[in-house]
Structures are given as C-alpha cells and as structure tokens.
Amino acid sequence: MQALFTRIWHVIASEQTRVFLWLVARQVIMTNMKRQRRHLTDTGICQVCKGGEESILHILRDCPAMFEIWSRFVPMAKQGEFFNTPLLGWLYENLGVHTEIGRYNWSTLFAITTWWGWKWRCWNVFGKTGKCRDRVKFLRDLAKETSEAHTKGRERGTAGVRVERHIVWTPPISGWFKVNTDAASKGNPGRALAGGVLRDEDGTWCGGFAINIGICSAPLAELWGIYYGLYMAWEKRVPRLIVEVDSEVVVSFFNAGINDSHPLSFLVRLCYGFFSRDWLIRVIHVYS
C-alpha cells in the first residue's frame, strides 16, 4: 500500500485530486453498496445506469457514464487489461504510467478523470446540473492546464536567480478567496496561538479568527490554523479557496503527503476532510 500512496502523493494533480485518490485507495468513499450494508438504503444498485451494483470501481470506471469516457482515452489494445484490473491494481498501474500524451502525462489525465467522475456522480445524485457539454475535451484541456502549471512552477523554482522583493499580500484571481493563517508557540512545545484572515479578490475582509491552542509544537499550531481557516471558509460557502501558510514544512504535508505513523497525521487527515468536499482548494507556501 505504501508504494501506491507514494504514487498518489506524487502524481501531477491538485491537492484535492490527490486526497480523493487517497480516499479511494483506502476504500472509504460512500457507495450504494456500502449504504445498503449499513441499512441506509434498500438497494445497492447504481441509480445512474440501473445495470449493476454501485461499487467504487463501478462509479469510477465501469458505469456506462464513465466507460464511454475511458474508452476514448485508452487504446483498444489496452482496454482488456484496463477494464478488468481490480481497484488497487488499477490505481497503482495507471498512476505509474508517465507516457506523454500531447502536453500531459497519462497519470495526470487518469487522476483528473477519476476525480471528475466522482464529482459528476455526486452532482447527479444531488440534482446539480453541470455545463460541460464535451467531457472528454474538458478533461484533456484540464490535464494540459495542470501539467503546464506544474512545469512553470518548477521552472520558477529552479531558476537560481536571487532577487530582493517586498513581501506583500497579493489578491487571488477573480472568483477565488484567500485565507492567510499564521501561528506561533512560545517554545517548541510551548503556549501556542493561531489566527487567520479571509479576504476576497478585492481584498475585502470576509472573516477572521484567533484561537488559544494551549501547549503544543509550532507545526501543530500551524496545522490548527489551517484547519480553522478551512472551517471558516467552508461555513461562509466559499467556492474556491487559496490557503497561504508561511511554514514550508506544514505545506509539504499537503503537497507531498504524510505517513500515517507521523504524530501530526491526525490533524492533516481532518484537513483532508475539507479537501474532499465540493469546492476547490490550493495550499501554498508564502514568506512571512
């Protein structure tokens, strides 16, 4: 499983997509089969196609709604293996394929398609109608955009040019909100505080918080700041959120993943719970 988790946390995709894939690998996303076992519904049948039990694989791959999309992505010669591999093997194999298709890797397209397959299913269940007429083109364009953003980020990170700059707050792009969180502990561990401010694209103050955490380490205090920032933004129905944090170590927990045995993993998982909801989130590092 650790090899699979490594591939999940290193795939070129959004944090939200990687968190979803981690939940899929843990087989904890809810399906009609699971609801029926828990006596939450009378049937485990897929309510979209009515043609089979709604397992995780059925939602993400085998339901005709997704089968048609995958059939247009996967070459005919490879479809037999692709459509007959069990869930964990299916994830592991496809997340390890870095063959370039146009301007993106297969693993990126696979991850994005899996995430959006789940989103579209949720929209169907809750009666939300999307505006995407050509889903295949939408997914290819999104994979290309994701890969290009990743490449540009690496180029900026390896340019090796030292520059002086003033550190100021920058507004998010149109339609996004930004929450800046910070925390400190007097000692490590020591008495800790955390706070955060939520603003829109115009810099308008939309909310804030300040909490007395108690005795803890600096990274734990930073994580509590992120958690409360996510909670505040979700309660205010923010659709797209950038979380800016000045701790590079803490940001790496979300971008690179964290081992289950890590003492801070419990709080990272709580934050992941927000990532899997129906909104867009980016966690980035900024200098204080």
From TrEMBL:
Task: Spell out the Gene3D superfamilies in the cross-references.
Answer: Ribonuclease H-like superfamily/Ribonuclease H
> What GO MF annotations does this protein's record show?
nucleic acid binding; RNA-DNA hybrid ribonuclease activity
SUPFAM superfamilies recorded for this chain?
A: Ribonuclease H-like
| InterPro entries from the UniProt entry | RNase_H-like, RNase_H-like_dom_plant, RNaseH-like_sf, RNaseH_domain, RNaseH_sf, RVT-Znf
Under the heading PROSITE patterns, the entry gives: RNASE_H_1
Q: Where is the RNase H type-1 domain?
A: 173-288
Cross-referenced PANTHER family: OS05G0353850 PROTEIN (PTHR47723), PUTATIVE-RELATED (PTHR47723:SF13)
Query: Can you say what this protein is called?
Result: RNase H type-1 domain-containing protein
Organism source for this protein? Microthlaspi erraticum
